[in-house]
């Protein structure tokens, strides 16, 4: 189906398309601010003059409405070697009404930025005002719909509107900048993928830049505007390129496009590093799509290795992956086209779990943060690989001569297994063909890529080269501990230089060593298989401990930087934080099963604690400490056997009292998009921007009405999955998505000369992103209603979410509420008394179109030190025609369309879910035809971890 095959012209183009500022230790909240100088040159950013390799991931706090889980995501990112997080700030999420802004609770971005500081991770701030991001109106607030000014331009209307937002968000961001040492905000993005370089476009961008500076932003301003705004009015400090080389079609996850070589762009950037504010980290999926596991497969570890290493090979030192944690389009946050989950097939799932993509990110992330010379390299010619299927790219650090060899298949999508030798350039002497060990080779097995190092100062030692990849190395006292890795079963060769032959002891595994007195090199040969260990004692003093891992063993290592130096850990599922003092190591992290814990720490370290509890350890021949960690206790979830049910669309009945509803009597609107007939029916004009909206039209029948043509606009993008259902005097007329349909009227339904009522329930699928021409202003709801056979006038009334823009529940905010009867009555709330409702069991099938609400309670008592991601699952044996809105404890966490899909499992984040007490589920099920109802509903455990993470309940009204 073509709808899934999203091609975005602006992106398609790109689809073609010493001493480092090391791993930042966490900054203590009470530490005095230390200002830093943030700059850049043509190689990289610099922090206080030191090159910084920016390895960053995107995360949207507004897609995870439980602040303690922000810390979880930030710690998981930091643990994988990300030194930065890129954050969109969402104007509409904070502003339900003109002049009203909320930065408290789940919107407390000060708290988010403090958490980033505490986690020791830089922030790349992207406050818009426009953000795109597959969110409603691309992040514009919905009250902006009812303004006339051209969006993303210097029009006075629009300028006055965005200034409200920018001044507020800028002031918050300004409190957290690296430049004055109060936080970790490193960069600030102006607008988003803005390509209008007309005089107006330039003026607009310049205005935003001036505003940012006036509001106290002192970090560099950048754009993701590709080749625009390099100079002239509106020029940015730092340009950036967005690239989604595999685009967004997850239906064929094995399909790859070519690797676009950015070295051309690299050469054009004479003053700037090559920066990718968005490089593909996954893909969004669409209603009716294949589901996020397909997207994760499309953009899996092989993709990460091949494509991310290709960006490094082109000389980029700044990469952000969109997304690293995608999250949840809870409430009505999504733009038309995308569904509740915004998992994105990212490295971290929507339920915050680590995937094999996370593991691969970590392998590369650790390299970028360990090997300082990688932040400053020039392209240099490489001798072609012996095997022509293999492509070699070489880069060299001009200051210290460290060489980087990037290997991949010439045709990136090649799946053959190829062996080759590699010719290394040598500063002195003739080129060296490696591996030297006869009968061995470097292998590229299918869609694989490798970054190999040569002439590298590895701590106090000297690496000649390795055909294994370097994960990381740490210096503890006078010992360097290094971890190299390769694919299971492949050969590796690591060669080190020493003045004289060192003592070599193989502590574990099969490693052959060979001293070459002529070249003063020690050669280690081995096969990557589990974990081998070699202790090397140079004559000149000091020590080197080499760990040779296969990929699976490598990803069990964690590097944690503390104020007292780096630690290396092996074993647990996740290592979040470490502190080192007075011979004691305090570690915090997660286990998914019982595991060994090995700690490489400075000499004299004796005591180890894990999540606050002592761990009994013994000293190992590797010079490490070894202990044991428990896994999580098993957990069982309650069954959801009994439900309460209530009929929930009294609006259908002709006698329903709608006198308190707003009359749709407006005859003018500032919205230039309303070019339809009067009266204006656009729900946005009446302050109802999200979710379901009811219309009731009264008319005095002449008896000649033979049909009615109803037209609606509900949000068409990447498929048409909005819907409306209509009734006449309680008789079902039918349903239709966005569009127009004439429904026949049975004359027997009409009450001639009396009041008749058409009731229409619409499902607003969100506002379009602002691609161009004010598209986000496209009307929502009914457009027109015209009788056949008569010209009878209809007087409409409208009702959406309670209060419209004046939210009765500001804690959950503008996107949580729609206009269903039950929502207006508070049936989603935990304290609502449903004892008078009928009991029901699920699944339940209905033959009457309409709305029913279902409620049930359940109690959890999960161990306090466990993180158990739980989802609510709806299962239908066969598709039925109904759509459900799912609430947990008053939070709208899912929209399910039985006959569209694909999502069946809806994350219930801790903090909203109470892991130690009562929880209430409420589901509004709207049967849009005669075969509706509600399927089987159950709780599913997505994972189970013993953890240091603690999650406070998010406070919000209960009734
Ligand atoms: C980019 C845009 C992002 C997001 C992404 C696709 O073009 O800047 O906000 O929409 O595409 O997920």
UniProtKB/TrEMBL annotation:
Broad class of enzyme this protein falls into: hydrolase
Sorted UniProt keywords: Glycoprotein, Glycosidase, Hydrolase, Signal
Catalytic activity: Hydrolysis of terminal non-reducing beta-D-galactose residues in beta-D-galactosides
Gene Ontology molecular-function annotations: beta-galactosidase activity
Signal peptide residues on this chain, from the entry's feature table: 1-28
Record-annotated Beta-galactosidase domain positions: 373-557
Pfam short name (any one): Glyco_hydro_35
EC number of this enzyme: 3.2.1.23
Classification via InterPro entries: Betagal_dom2, Betagal_dom2_sf, BetaGal_dom3, BetaGal_dom3_sf, BetaGal_jelly_roll_dom, Galactose-bd-like_sf, GH, Gly_Hdrlase_35_cat
Protein family membership: Belongs to the glycosyl hydrolase 35 family.
Record's protein name: beta-galactosidase
Annotated organism of origin: Luteibacter yeojuensis
